[in-house]
Fold each of these.
Amino acid sequence: MSSVEPSSASRPLRVAGLAALGVAAVALVLGVVTLFANGSEDPQNGAQPGPSSTTSADPAQPTTSSEPVPPTSTSAEPPPTTTPSSEPPPSTSAQPPPVTSAQPPPAQPKAAVRVYNNSNIKNLADHAATDLRNAGYPVEEVGNYSSGIIPTTTVYYRPGTDEEAAAKALARNFGIRAEARFEGLKDAKPGLIMIVTREYKAGSGKDGGNSK
């Protein structure tokens, strides 16, 4: 019995078929690989997103970062200290008005005086009258007083009148006494009465009087 060998014409066909099967197997493998590869692609390319090892950040959950967060100080910074100024605060009190030098009031006219000599020194009343005029006192009369003895030079005034203040001022200027009128002078006309005695010194006035 003899075996039948295939003809030379069918041998190339068998090789071509095997080659086609090999190509189909390679294509199948490539297709499977491509399918799995597409499954892991980005959803933007049309593939469904697969499971990922990293989860998307949930807006409701706080995000964590791998970088260390610097610690925040809970203590408030102290307020800046202000150095008190050496200058005193401005005064709020009202400043006093500037002092203006007012003109002194005009001097009041001095009281008129009547001068009488009660000594044996001649012209002593005239010397006293000169001193009074030099001191600014008007002299109305000069004479002698012989109705009694006056112990010391005195200027007399009517009590309770303006003559009292004028008589005391004259007495201070001349260094003599000032007294209310006594009985023998009560009826004399108004005005100051100056009776000089032997101890009176000419030029006694302190307001610029000088003797002759």
Amino acid sequence: MKADLMEAQQRVTDGTSAAVRTRSGACEIDVTLTAAAVSGVRDLVSACLRLWGLTELDWRVTLTASELLTNAFQHARKEDESSVPVKVVLTRTPDGIFLCVSDPHPWLPAPVSAGDNDEGGRGLMLIKTLSNRYGCSSTAHGKDVWVTILHSA
């Protein structure tokens, strides 16, 4: 193990813990995500931002992380299961943050038109609004959905 790498199990909710690996400017979180664990993972992301002195990005990054995690839970989870394995990668860049959420579902997210009374369907619009860039790509194990969030100009 490298001297700058720190690994820990972090409890995110009752019965759920995450494997967290951090090193200077990078954090990886592996978790079996449940609905209740989304807020705990969001709190871990926020803790990394505070550690890096990037509190001005906190609300945008944590709201985006919540949306990406909720989407992974809703759409990547098998219908008869109560959890889904996800990986969150948070990387400090010279001009902001790179955030990626990986899940095992191969289908890429697509925008939908949400009506005024629809409860869902606005996630990608929210992500587009909060981030400077976003995208998704297929992987051998599912997909990655990523964003970059930059410091304000």
